[in-house]
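Q: What structure does this chain adopt?
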Amino acid sequence: MSSFSPFDLLPGTCRALREMGIDTPTPIQERAIPPLLEGRDVVGQARTGSGKTLAFGIPLLEMIEPENHWAQALVLVPTRELAAQVAQVLEHLGRADGVRVVRIVGGVSAGPQEQALRRGAQVVVGAPGRVLDLMRKGTLKLDRLVYMVLDEADEMLDRGFAPDVQRILAGTPAPKDRQTAMFSATLPAWVQSVASKHLHQPVQVAIDTRPEDRPKIEHVALEVDSTRRMEALREILDHQEGPAIVFGRTKHGVRKLGRQLSGFGYRVAILQGNMSQNARDREMASFRSGQAPILVATNVAARGLDVDGVEVVVNYELPETAELLTHRVGRTGRMGRAGRAVTLLTETDRDRWRQFERDLSVRIPRQAWRARESRPGASRPRSRAL
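A:
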């Protein structure tokens, strides 16, 4: 499909897409938008960076009645950063038609969010904790909801979020009385089973799930002694030109790693769950602008985060699951661009790494890390402070 014209979208939506420089649907958009516009439930799976936000966002905006000032659509996401990103896209799409979007997340005062809801917002984008809190207070009412989205559905229905998500869904109309869309890059069988209780005769849409359809990401595992892992990381960063994301495992470990890299002169932003929302916003703005070309983060940055041109993802420490590895690596190689991923494997990681490869049905090249000699006249690394 060469354009959005066959979808017969609202003029304001078409204008917003042109302003965003988007004129051709991606495969997930081409396959998911028609059944959603027909009012069908959809379970969509496509790799990261494939355009899933517009796949559910365009039909969402088409369903909204701007003259009605109650919550008509809810998009649940696992992180505050993803909530900001999705809300920004929906605001742009719906602005011309007078659709009001409010972001509901923790880490900041609930007061302004409650005021925005009282003024009337047709679309709510939020993380489960704060959404449930405002439902319990009676500020957010979802009894007239017509459109429900679970973004990053596998995480939303996993043990951590599932109880809150179940309570939120219980406060919405029955599945046959609302339209529901679920999207993710990975949809294990158990997610399909759980989802069947919340959807009504869904259409299944799967894009780029074959190994040959995976994005062009060069992924290598470097075997390194645990005492030299920082040395290996610095060498990787010294030889990269564009933005880099370095993933650690724990909030404390990420803070420590970020401070160490800063001490070595690298320009670093840090993102982890214990930070206030204002601090998280500042760090992300610094990374997006290029002021700090290295983002050191926990898995909070593994889901849905869309930053143009991330050149390399480094797994300084392994994640807990193979699915999280897929999401981390998916921060590079987005929207058809090539990317690079490097995983540092210490002697204690090897058993878990072999299990990851079995779970993903893929063999990732492994090689022993050896420090490179400094080359005379080598250019100053862009990741260092100027």
